[in-house]
Design brief:
346 residues, alpha/beta, Aminopeptidase, eight-stranded mixed beta sheet, two-stranded antiparallel ribbon, 32% helix, 15% strand, disordered N terminus, binds zinc ion, signal, zinc ion binding, Peptidase_M14, metallocarboxypeptidase activity, zinc
Length: 346
């Protein structure tokens, strides 16, 4: 299993790296217009890292990287350990949290997080990590990601040994549980991460459907700051600055095409709840296309995996650097005033 794990992960990362090198030529439509499912190709979940492969990868990196510490913050409904990979060189540093797979069928962000963690082990990143604390939760909803749930997934479209679903094993949407904290996964996050660390920024990584457009072109993703009424204008501004760093760095690649996400204002949503309860500047980033679903227009063909993994890597690497050198607090947020809201019928 171990060798399969590595090859699956490596294949996805190799695709991302290949695409960074030479393929992108400034075509803004490149990502968004990539193939979706729609019968074009078979969706195979075997290319995605399993929970065991993710844990194996994290333990390997933990053994290799002095600056990294791997912590278990709790267990899922089915008893899987939920892992936090953390780099805390100085508690006084600014701290950023990256959360992936609240929704278990949104996995390319997890693959990107593994890549980012591995790259932080490079000697060239040592001085960067002296100025910022970074917290990663790569596979929050591990039961949903493995399709190990107490409800049927017979209608899901992906072929392979497993299905992936949005919900946790109890069929609860964890990204609507940030007030009640009724599920063990959400409690672990709040009690052992959000309440423990002095977190300044957080990016909640997701995947959306495949059909959203801005200015006629399919988007590569969409972003949004907290929209709850329970946060100060200053916190919204800091969140918008975090979004500005993401937007500028994805946009300058030439292939990223980002819209504004149309999101709700409830504190049950992580983007809002983390901001309202802990004063964390938050950003939601929705990558295009889910790994599995029963509804075809939500599922993305794997030919676009490399682009989307790389978009998530760009997001994490750029924001780590901007928090470390303080440039995030000088970011120009005016682009938000003209960022078009994505839509599925335009
Ligand atoms: Zn999601």
């Amino acid at each position: 299993m171990r060798s399969i794990a590595r090859s699956a992960c490596t294949a996805a990362l190799a695709g991302a790296l290949l695409l960074t090198g030479t393929v992108f030529s400034g075509n803004a439509a490149a990502v968004g217009e990539g193939p979706d499912y729609q019968g074009n190709e078979k969706i195979r979940t075997s290319i995605l890292s399993t929970y065991d492969e993710v844990v194996d990868f994290l333990k390997t990196q933990d053994a290799r990287q002095d600056a990294m510490e791997l912590e278990v913050i709790g267990q899922t409904v089915k008893g899987r350990d939920i892992h936090l990979a953390k780099y805390v060189s100085d508690p006084g540093n600014p701290t950023i949290l990256y959360l992936a797979q609240q929704h278990g069928n949104e996995q390319l962000t997890t693959e990107a997080m593994l890549h980012t963690i591995k790259s932080l082990g490079s000697p060239s990143k040592a001085s960067l990590l002296e100025d910022v604390n970074v917290l990663f939760i790569p596979m929050f909803n591990a039961d949903g990601a493995m399709g190990d749930v107490n409800f049927p997934l017979d209608d899901y479209l992906a072929a392979g040994e497993r299905h992936l679903t949005r919900y946790n094993a109890n069929e609860v949407d964890l990204n609507r549980d940030h007030v009640a904290k009724a599920e063990p996964e959400t409690r672990a996050l709040h009690e052992n991460v959000l309440s423990v660390y002095d977190i300044d920024y957080a990016i909640d990584l997701h995947h959306q459907g495949t059909q959203s457009r801005v200015n006629g072109d399919l988007v590569s993703g969409s972003i949004l700051y907290p929209t709850t009424p329970d946060v100060s204008p200053e916190l919204v501004e800091r969140s918008k600055q975090l979004g500005a760093v993401v937007y500028q760095n994805v946009d300058r690649t030439g292939w990223g095409h980002i819209g504004r996400y149309d999101g709700g204002s409830a504190n049950t949503i992580g983007r809002n709840g983390m901001a309202a309860e802990y004063g964390i500047a938050t950003l939601l980033f929705e990558m295009r296309g889910m790994s599995d679903h029963e509804y075809a227009p939500y599922v993305l063909g794997q030919k676009s995996n490399g682009y989307l993994i790389h978009q998530s890597v760009v997001t994490m690497e750029a924001t780590i650097a901007a928090v470390a050198d303080g440039s995030v607090s000088k970011a120009d947020t005016s682009f938000w005033d003209t960022l078009p809201q994505q839509c599925d019928t335009c």
